[in-house]
Specification:
about 375 residues; four-stranded antiparallel β-sheet; three-stranded mixed β-sheet; 16 helices; 9 strands
Length: about 375
């Protein structure tokens, strides 16, 4: 938190010199919170004016709200009107990369707080469209309850949901279906009955289609890919699924003219999305690397039988987690599902544009409650 506060003080100092009065007011709000436990003289020594800020809230929450506003401001600055770089000079895939990375500017906990506002807004239709087709999200909307553990970035579904929502088109249908595709409670994940009557999607087919659109039409496609453990449903039917660790996983993949980008998080014994980005894994991969990734995935999902060293090797290449080590006798997890039976479900967002990626307008004044 110390690094965040130091950064906010620097931000406030810079904004006090800004010619725009709204920027100076924002600086005052930052400094009012940061110096709320200091004397009036200390505050006056730092800055000429400090505007009023709601006093009926806990200091920790006011600081948290201030950091949340700073993150909202950072993301809004990436929009066509807020960025110094002309929109036409950016590609949808590179912009999506930057937007996802910027979501973690102030750390994973603040990112979880902001994502919770987005998740709830889309889930319960609590947002507005502006005349310019932006999607206005209440940054300071008061939720009935919030726990950062409800939106962890090591959850593969939370990680994929963020990417899909940022890539979705600015329509109710696109936003809702993007979120639903990764949600049990919204009916986006399959049941045992549905799995028995539906065919598995093919990442190879979707990748080839998206690659053609990228190379021939300069279009960008974003996919949410779910690897589903069919056998765990059989075990659940027998009441013994809790004794096994499921290999099920979700990830997001963007395909554009420049190549592909993969985003993912992996459970409490794996990694968070921001760590995955930090370690350079969410880089643009060449077409050769892309083909290898898809080939490995197809080999994995076509495997059958007991969990083997070959399956484990492919899984580790794709998702950077050694299941054999994780689920061994001395490992932190339960034994892996004894039989490998995979099903794939893919949600595609076609022709993603830069204006799709910058559609969210994070608004501090939109405080409607649910």
């Amino acid at each position: 938190m110390a690094d965040i506060l130091e950064g906010l003080i620097s931000l406030g100092d810079a904004l006090f010199q800004h010619p725009d009065p709204t920027e100076r007011k924002f600086a005052s709000e930052i400094l009012r919170v940061l110096f709320q436990n200091h004397s009036l003289q200390e505050r006056d020594d730092y800055a000429p004016t400090v505007s009023s800020f709601p006093q009926n809230e806990e200091p920790e929450k006011r600081v948290g709200d201030c950091v949340l506003l700073s993150l909202a401001k950072t993301l809004n600055a990436m929009s066509p009107g807020g960025s110094q770089e002309p929109l036409e000079k950016r590609t949808p895939l590179s912009l999506l990369q930057a937007m996802v990375k910027s979501f973690f500017t102030f750390g994973p906990d603040i990112a979880s707080r902001l994502f919770s506002k987005l998740h709830i807004a889309i889930r319960f239709d609590s947002y507005e469209f502006t005349p310019s087709s932006r999607v206005k999200i209440g940054t300071l909307v008061q939720l009935p309850s919030f726990n950062v553990k409800d939106f962890p970035w090591n959850s593969c579904k939370v990680a994929a949901s963020l990417v899909l929502l940022l890539a979705a088109h600015a329509t109710k249908e696109s936003l809702y279906s993007a979120l639903k595709s990764q949600s049990w409670s919204m009916g986006g994940l399959p049941t045992r009955e549905l799995l028995s009557s539906s065919s598995s999607d093919s990442l190879l087919v979707e990748f080839q289609r998206a690659r053609r659109a990228a190379l021939e039409e300069k279009k960008t496609t974003v996919m949410g890919v779910k690897l589903i453990d069919k056998h765990i449903f059989d075990l659940e039917g027998r009441g013994v699924s809790e004794t096994y660790f499921s290999f099920a996983h979700s990830f997001a993949m963007g395909v554009g003219p420049e190549g592909i980008v993969v985003w993912q998080g992996f459970g409490k014994h794996g990694y968070r999305l921001d760590q995955y980005i930090r370690d350079g894994h969410a880089r643009v991969r060449s077409w050769d690397e892309a083909k290898q990734f898809v080939s490995n995935f197809e080999k994995l999902v076509s495997a059958k039988g007991i969990w083997s060293a070959k399956i484990n090797k492919l899984y580790k290449k794709l998702f950077l987690v050694d299941i054999n080590s994780l689920c061994s006798a001395g490992g932190p997890e339960r034994p892996v599902t004894p039989r490998f039976r995979a099903h794939v479900s893919i949600h595609c967002i076609n022709d993603v544009q830069c204006q799709d990626v910058t559609k969210f307008l994070w608004d501090a004044n939109a405080k409607w409650s649910l």
